[in-house]
Amino acid sequence: MKTLDIYEELKGNAYPGRGIVIGKSADGKHAVTAYFIMGRSVNSRNRVFTETEDGIKTEAADPSKLSDPHLIIYSPVRVLGNKTIVTNGDQTDTIYELMDKQQTFEQSLRTREYEDDAPNYTPRISGIMHVGDGQYNYAMSILKSADGNPDSVERFTFTYSTPIAGFGHFIHTYMGDGNPLPSFEGEPKKVTIPNDIDEFTNGLWNALNEDNKVSLFVRFIDIETGKAVSKIVNKYSK
């Protein structure tokens, strides 16, 4: 698979929607993830990421402008033991709750499908990172309609059991802007991952479309110790 420069990939797409990057730092010391949200409407843009005890949540930047919390207010990141869950919707909670009951990542997502936002039928994208005992692996998932047909759901899971230092995978909701929005196609894109969290955060944020970007979360987890360092960037403030 061709390796892409994540920054150039983002610069070339004015509206990738919501996106998840998971990989391994170039020095091999950190498990890395990033999650971003974008918006075209006032309701979608009226959001910020805030920290919680086990991750982050989305909140309204200006509660008076929140017209519909459905599909935009959720917890994108939660931690369950040595597992970090990253998704673009409330399936974060589904994965957390069912994996806590000993179901697998894939089994948990079999209870969900694409979002109920016709005519877009936005895909649900999810990631799971396992970091423990000096070991690291991750998986990614996409639940989508069959070429926009709401009568058929397609489920794809991609597993990366031995991540390579300096590389990761990028999955997002839309191939670009449009009406209806065209869903992501194919397997997660192979991208490069740097060593430095500030470099990665700044590079991603600067590459996202200025008009449409809303919030960005980046986390580096030390594979040996499990210690995590995170960064949040919000375009709009509370």
Automatic annotation (TrEMBL):
What domain of life?
Answer: Bacteria
What name does this protein carry? Answer: IMP cyclohydrolase
What lineage, starting at the top, does this entry show? Bacteria, Bacillati, Bacillota, Clostridia, Eubacteriales
Record bears the keyword RNA-binding: no
Q: Which GO terms describe its biological process?
A: IMP biosynthetic process
Tell me where the transmembrane regions lie.
none
Entries under Pfam families matching the protein: IMP_cyclohyd
Cited InterPro entries: IMP_cyclohydrolase-like (IPR020600), IMP_cyclohydrolase-like_sf (IPR036795)
Originating species: Ruminococcus albus
The record places domain Inosine monophosphate cyclohydrolase-like at 15-222
Q: Does the keyword Hydrolase apply?
A: yes
Keywords attached to this entry: Hydrolase
One GO MF term on file is: IMP cyclohydrolase activity
Q: Which SUPFAM superfamilies match?
A: Archaeal IMP cyclohydrolase PurO
